[in-house]
Amino acid sequence: MATYGGQRRVPGLRREELALLAGVSASYYSRLEQGQAPNASPEVLDALARALRLDDAERRHLHELAAGGRRRGATRRPVPERVSPVTRQLIAVLGDVPVVVLGRRSDVLAWSTLGHALYAGHLAPDAPDTPRQRPNMARLVFLDTHTRDLYADWPAKARGVVATLRMASGRHPDDPLLAALLGELTVKSPEFATMWADHRVKTGGDAVYEMRHPLVGTMQVTQQTLRTADDQAVVVATTEPGSPSHSAMTLLTHSVITGRNPRRDAPTREMTG
């Protein structure tokens, strides 16, 4: 590993050192930092990613940021996102499995009956049907008490949401609604502002969360994220077969089907004389 002499006031590479490692001039790298070199080649971006030791998600984010700079032009009003018939078929086929479809800004575009019961039973079931009234998962995680209480390790869930939004901002740098959402969360949630300043990124994948559901108690839930061709995320929640979490999810499914509250309708021991 290359070393550079001299004491440093802050950790990390200097601009000139990073340019040297990436094989570009310091002046060119400076223009890249300032957004004045929008035509950086994929090879240059990959060299910078190697010099910075970025992982795959961070490298893709760097390429998306560069592509976004090349695409910039007149800003158009975004068209409301819609769930494709194919995605709705997927929701139907999954049946009694919690499913939520999120748009590019984390708007809830659709959910299965059990997905609604698991994530947002306190909201109207038809809330995603009207674009102006759609719940937003990022707002729920940071600004909604019910959703905050749902996650035993709320900071882990919150960091995942922030990292996913950062990826979206790289893919859609000129989206005014996304920019407005980020501004709103920054103003209303100091925790979001702190996490957003951390600059971490991630891609969709699997994550296991301990969820404390108000109706059926604690469950270990695996959230698997699938990406569609429309840049939407299909989040599928599962539990380990045969586990107490699976039993709790089955109880939640039963409560949805029958309309009964498991805690309210739990049998009580009769007094005998």
What does this protein look like?
The protein is an alpha+beta fold and about 270 residues long. The chain has two domains: about 55 residues, no CATH class; about 170 residues, Beta-Lactamase (2-Layer Sandwich). It is about 45% helix and about 10% strand. It has a five-stranded antiparallel β-sheet, sandwiched between helices. A hairpin with a 5-residue loop joins strand 1 and strand 2. The longest helix has 18 residues. The N terminus and C terminus are likely disordered. This is Transcriptional regulator. One of its GO terms (molecular function) is DNA binding.
Bulk shape: elongated
What share of residues is helical? 40-55%
Please report the number of helical segments.
Answer: 12
CATH overall fold name of the largest domain = Beta-Lactamase
Radius of gyration: 23 Å
User: What assembly state would you assign to the polypeptide chains in this entry?
Assistant: single chain
Under CATH at level 1, the class of the largest domain stands as Alpha Beta
Average pLDDT: 81
Elements, N to C (H/E): HHHHHEEHHHHHHEEEH
Distance between the termini: 81 Å
Sheet with the most strands: spatial strand order: 2-1-5-4-3
In terms of structural class, how would the helical and strand content be classed?
alpha+beta
Spans of at least 5 consecutive residues whose pLDDT stays below 50 are: 1-5, 268-273
Q: What percentage of amino acids are in beta strands?
A: 5-15%
Q: Could you say what the CATH architecture of the largest domain is? A: 2-Layer Sandwich
Largest sheet: 5 strands, antiparallel
Number of DSSP strands? 5
Provide the domain count: 2
